[in-house]
Amino acid sequence: MTLTCRLRSVRKEFINRVSEAVLNQLLDKLLECGVVNDEEMQAVRAKTRADKARDVIDTVRGKGTEASSALISALCEVDPCLSRELTLR
Description:
This protein has about 90 residues and is mainly alpha-helical. The chain has one domain: Orthogonal Bundle (Death Domain, Fas). The chain has six helices and no strands. Helix 1 runs antiparallel to helix 4 and helix 2 crosses helix 5. The chain is globular.
């Protein structure tokens, strides 16, 4: 299964379970590695938690395998418990 497919398969649970604090840390990491730009990050940060989670996972999936890998790695680092529960480890 490709990484983008793996993210699609856990999308609903990610949106329901990821915390605001983890989302903010993920955005910072995705900005650092160039997956998202400043404009995308600011647009996402202005949203509610669920909409923020939805935008993060959908934006990253749309950018392909490398971006999906970066999100999965960042989630494993920032919230190992959630990444394990989503079977992304």
